[in-house]
Amino acid sequence: MGVSKQQAVENRKAIIEASEKLFREHGIDGVGLSALMKAAGFTQGGFYNHFESKEALAAEVVASAMDKANRDLQKAIAAPLKRGGSRLKRQVDYYLSGTHCDDIEQGCAIAGLTADVRRLGHEAQAHFASGLQIMIGTLTALVAEQRPEISGTDEARREAIAFYSEMVGALILSRAISSADPKLGEEILNASREMLLRDFALEKGQGKR
Fold first, then answer.
1. Which of 56, 51, 22 is nearest to 36 (CA)?
2. 155 Cβ partners below 8 Å, 6+ apart?
3. Where are the domains of the chain?
4. Cβ–Cβ under 8 Å, residues 128 and 103
5. From residue 54, how far is each of 25, 40, 95, 121 by CA, in Å?
6. In 3D, which of 66, 95, 102, 72 has the Cα closest to residue 170?
7. pLDDT digit string (tens) for the chain, length 209 residues
8. Does domain 55-206 have CATH number 3.40.1130.10?
9. 176: nearest Cα among 104, 109, 95
């Protein structure tokens, strides 16, 4: 008995979701087809019924992960804010928290996939770049909300890029050494959070330079 079109779609989605978790944890090169199909609940032989190659799968994983990351960011920004609060500060506090640092499987797709994307083909890189452009646009609006005097200017975008680059870099560094030196990992997160809140969310939001 054959598989229905709807079931085939669900199976493909399950493979993509399982693969993303494994790719984030072990890297794309560190996961074989047998392991990722087993994680999705299927046999290795069924892989090529859904994807032409592992690289084709990786491209879809990147596209799915980036789409989810942008939807999650939009949802987080839209969440009710306490009176006098700052959406930018809330985002920094979450992103550079120990909880987010430990959540490799469900955390930031940018931090989780950056090291692998540069070794993938053009399609995966294009999905990553497209998702990153959307994220930078969202963060640009967030920076401009904190500093309305630069809203609609190139400076807002430049600051958003610098802001996000520092957060991602701090998260990647903290994760890289968290097992060997958890104290240093925590120190990296705390130092970056304090600097960003001072430079982007607090001082500049109050008109200080």
1. 22
2. none
3. 1-51, 55-206
4. no
5. 17, 15, 30, 11
6. 95
7. 567 888 889 999 999 999 999 999 898 889 999 999 999 999 888 899 999 999 999 999 999 999 999 999 999 999 999 888 889 999 999 999 999 999 998 899 999 999 899 889 999 999 999 999 999 999 999 999 888 999 889 999 999 999 999 999 999 999 999 999 999 999 999 999 999 998 865 544 444 33
8. no
9. 104
Q: How far is Cα 158 from Cα 129, in angstroms, rounded to an integer?
A: 17
Is 113 in contact with 105 (CB distance < 8 Å)?
Answer: no
Residues 6+ apart with CB under 8 A from 164: 135, 136, 139
Question: How many CB atoms sit inside 10 A of residue 1's CB?
Answer: 3
| pTM, full prediction | 0.86
User: Do residues 146 and 86 touch, judged by C-beta distance below 8 A?
Assistant: yes
Q: In angstroms, what is the C-alpha Rg of the chain?
A: 19
CATH topology of domain 1-51: Arc Repressor Mutant, subunit A (1.10.10)
> Which residues, including other chains, have CB under 8 Å from residue 185's CB and lie 6 or more apart?
101, 173, 174, 175, 177, 178
Query: What DSSP state is assigned to residue 201?
Result: I
3-state helix, strand, coil in the chain (%, to 5): 80, 0, 20
